[in-house]
Amino acid sequence: MNTSELIDYMSEKSELPKSECRELFDTLTSIMQSYFDNETGVLVPDFGTFTVKEKKSRQSFNPASGEHVLLPRKLVLGFTPASQLKEDLK
Question: What topology does CATH give the domain 39-90?
Answer without folding.
Answer: HU Protein; Chain A (4.10.520)
